[in-house]
Amino acid sequence: MLKLRRRPHFVNVFPSTSSVNRLKIPVGFNRNLEGRTTGSVLLRGPSGYSWVVELVRKDDDLFFDEGWADFVRDHSVECGDFLVFRHDGDLVFDVKVFDQSSCEKEAAFHCKCSQGGSEYDRIVGQKRGREDEGVSLDQDCEGLVKRTRESSSEFDRDVGDKEHCGYELLLATKTCRGLASCDENHEGTILKKTGTQDLNLHGGGCTPMVAEFEEKKVAQSFNSSFPFFVRIMKRFNVSGSYTLNIPYQFAMEHLPKCKTEIVLRNLKGACWTVNSVPTTRVHTSHTLCGGWLGFVRSNEIKVGDICIFEFVRKFELRVHILRVGGEDPDRQSGKAGSNVLINRSDATLPKKFVKKSSKVHSKSMKKVQMCDNKGFKMLDKKKYGNAAKKSASVALCSLSRSGNEKQEAAIGGLRMMLALDEEKAAQSFASGFPSFVRIMRKFNVGGSYTLEVPEKFAKNIKQKLPATVTLKGPSGIIWDVGLKADGNTLFFDCGWKIFVEDHSLVENDLLIFKYNGMSHFDVLMFDGRSLCEKAASYFVRKCEHTEYDSRCQTKRKMNETPVEIVHNSSHCGLESSPEKSINNDIETRPSRQPITSAATNKKMRIMGSSTRSVPARKSLRGKDLTTFAAEVKVETGDLEFDQTSMDGDVFSPRYTTGKRPATQVEKANVFLMAQEALTREGFMVVMKPTHVARRFYMAIPTAWVAKHLSKQNEDVILRINKQTWKARFYYHRNRDCGGLSGGWRNFVNDNNLDEDDACVFEPADVGNKPMILDVSIFRVLQAPVPLTQVHPALY
DNA sequence: TGCGAAGCCAAACGAGTCAT
DNA sequence: ATGACTCGTTTGGCTTCGCA
């Protein structure tokens, strides 16, 4: 079974605690070394050459020892240089070298390995398999202002080979320009998925959470003028039932409410026709079935591969396939033209299928042509720009599992999710585009809040930079930052402060800015003390700042960037599933969309994730809300939205917990703690928005209901220590499931339960009625904070 | 009478099963 | 082997109830 690859980084300011002959690995990084404390390490430099270095342990510290001096000498590493190490596993590291100008060290790209002899061959020979399957940091497609890396033969060779690269290869890069060169309609970027990552996240052992995470990430990084949705291939997609569910939202918008044939066109131009069958009683949701298998096989789609379906015209979807599962160089390189692909695929297919496929395709193409002739208008770019975002948002779907399987899967999912984030970090760093590095100084993270772009770096690209650039943090969220020129020096100015605050950057933190050529920087962040990546930076949410940087004259307009995917809250209610946007832990961009209602047009303020709606409840009635354990907080946010609340609490007072958003790590910890506290008799629930706000309904696992509760409505007593709350268990007879409703709200509010908190419910006195459930709360953010009411005028 | 909370139906969708 | 259909869970939203 394939295994998830983690690519954690650490950074070293040379010389820090190490000497020229030995380099200490940050203590915090040791856990990423797969338990290895000795052995030979392979350091792969920017030149593509590798150095063998001995890993030694002294006391509790690990060092790069013998051979390190060679690396230092060959790279002309000097005092004040920065080295960034990416662990690709099996003690193989990719190393980037930055000089004192904060830019990548030119010499490092041209240096050769002075090591030689049998030891090198032995070690490299052992590791060759892995290395070969790995991708150098510089192996991306050439796109634009890229550093010259003549000596990086590996890279050049690849590029040369891939000159005719099909879309798939280009999609595997992060350059928009690369895409544009192949398809003018395509301006999008997409997450790099190297063929080396033996990710098998989805389906084959992957949890829905991880798949959801990944789908969303892909959706975020993909941009298209057409509507699209993202699907990660699960086992049932490529075997078993051989079907693929089309997101409801997408089906509603673009597919008829009847069985239809859809043409799937891969990026090489080859087409397949599949049946799309409405699967719900009201025929609104579609499933791809007949013919889908043919597409899967012809395109050698594997479990874990990521498919992006672009609605390029009526009844036609262009499919981008990102290979994540099993690798085949030919597949990925795109060297094979469409004909080759078809022929090869055909050879592997039953004749029956091949015949059917081509036949149906021909038929469908006629249909498509007919549609065109009838005046089917090309999609309105503006319209579908939004639609695309909608579609992206609907790529996320709820997970559903049952009982222990669900819990086990969720644990696995959380663990994998953490690993996945590191994978993301690795990917985000894996670029051949110019980078620079900056250690945060006082004025960078306070005072004037400016950051100087290294002159050497600025000299190369400033002509291409507009007044505003975008910074994409490890979380995938984008910040607009102004660029101010002062002579030959460029500064991040307006907006930088917000970026700093949102990432809680402090003095001595180290940031790597990777320019991708589109006025856009990917930023990696390292903790100044541990020199390891700032884990929290991956889970940052953009704050709804109550005050904008006063120097900024304008706020960023919504939908301004083509890269971002906004989870449009206008999907809430009538059009979509608000919870799916709000709920999602990995939402990358706070919704700032104007929201209109078919029913009402109340001015509402969209709160951050730590805000929840607490409609006045019985226990509050008669009380002055301002006395409710907290002073009234009047939010002075500056963004107003027309929002429709479809949940009936438009006029409800809204409260903010004042808590910061929880990080994924914290959520995982809470989950694991709760899991450990859980006994066979109990059940555990991680609070979702609908549990602790809005609907205040908590479903109880069906298996547990069947075992412990009668199939009827009944009261349940929730108990913490000696304090009790009465809640109502509602049983859905026709659906044989149920959950807590009446009274549950009081429990939630009285205990300040928040989203992502985990509750363990253990039955006391089994058999007695009403059932008493002892509840243990595991808070994702410690120290419950009393709710703070938000001024009604502002939401 | 108006509004919020409670109650509950049914849509949506992932995933598995079963018929062909 | 294939593909249509069904099931289980989550969640949106409508209706009813009760209080001020």
Can you offer a commentary on this structure?
The protein is an alpha+beta fold and 795 residues long. The chain folds into four domains: 9-133, At1g16640 B3 domain (Beta Barrel); 154-367 and 376-403, DNA-binding pseudobarrel domain (At1g16640 B3 domain); 431-539, At1g16640 B3 domain, CATH 2.40.330; 664-778, Beta Barrel (At1g16640 B3 domain), CATH 2.40.330.10. Helices cover 27% and strands 22% of the residues. It is built from 23 helices and 33 strands. A seven-stranded mixed beta sheet has the order 1-6-7-3-4-5-2. A hairpin with a 2-residue loop joins strand 28 and strand 29. The relative contact order is 0.09. Mean pLDDT is 55; it is low at 1-6, 117-212, 325-433, 543-658 and 783-795. The protein binds a DNA duplex (20 and 20 nucleotides) through helix 19 and strand 29.
